[in-house]
Specification:
Layout: E1 2-4, H1 10-19, E2 38-44, E3 47-57, E4 61-69, H2 78-89, E5 92-97, H3 100-108, E6 112-116, E7 123-128
Antiparallel strand pairs: 1-2, 2-3, 3-4, 5-7, 6-7
Bound molecules: coenzyme A (COA).
C-alpha cells in the first residue's frame, strides 16, 4: 500500500537513509527527512518498507530528493511503485543520481540523463509525462 508520508515517519525514514550509507554519509544522495517533508511511504502488512520525498525546487520544479527501499525489499518493484505515484501526481520530475545502479533504475522508469553535474557519478535526470500515459 502506498500512503502519504506523515510527520511520525521522519525517524524511520532517516534511519533507512543512513543505513544505506554506513560509514560514508558524504555519499548520501538526499537531505535528512524533516517532519514537514512531502512524499509517500510504501507499507507491506502495515510495516513501512520504502519512501520517496520531494520538494518544490526553484529552478528544477518537482524535485525528488529521497527514494529509498529497505535492502531486503529491493528489486521487487517497490521503488518503481513509489516513483509511479509521483509520476501520477506530477507532469515532470527532476533528481540527482549518484550511483550507476540507480541510473539504470530511473532509466527503466522513463527518466533521461540531462547533464553530468560535475562529478563522475553524479547526474541530473528528468522525466516528463507523455500524452500516451503516466509512466513514461
Ligand atoms: C534505487 C532503489 C530506490 C530502487 O528501488 P527498488 O525497489 O529496488 O527498485 P525496483 O525493484 O522497482 O527496480 C529494480 C531495478 O532497479 C535496479 N536496481 C535496484 N537495486 C539494485 C541493486 N542493488 N543492484 C543493481 N541494480 C539494482 C535494477 O535495474 C533493477 O532491475 P532488475 O532487478 O530487473 O535488474 C533502491 O535500490 C534503493 O533504495 N537503493 C539505495 C538508495 C538509493 O540508491 N536511492 C537512490 C538515490 S539516487
Amino acid at each position: 500500500m502506498i500512503r502519504p508520508l506523515r510527520p511520525g515517519d521522519c525517524e524511520w525514514c532517516n534511519r533507512l537513509l543512513y543505513d544505506q550509507y554506513p560509514g560514508d554519509p558524504s555519499d548520501l544522495s538526499g537531505q535528512p527527512v524533516e517532519s514537514t517533508a512531502s512524499g509517500y511511504v510504501c507499507e507491506i502488512d502495515n510495516v513501512p518498507v520504502g519512501f520517496v520525498t520531494w520538494v518544490q525546487h526553484e529552478q528544477l520544479g518537482h524535485y525528488v530528493d529521497n527514494l529509498y527501499v529497505e535492502s531486503r525489499w529491493q528489486r521487487q518493484g517497490i521503488g518503481a511503485l513509489l516513483l509511479q505515484k509521483m509520476q501520477q501526481e506530477f507532469d515532470e520530475l527532476a533528481l540527482h543520481v549518484h550511483k550507476a545502479k540507480a541510473v539504470v533504475f530511473y532509466e527503466k522508469n522513463g527518466f533521461q540523463i540531462v547533464c553530468n553535474a560535475g562529478t563522475q557519478n553524479k547526474h541530473r535526470m528528468e522525466w516528463r509525462k507523455t500524452k500516451s500515459g503516466p509512466a513514461n
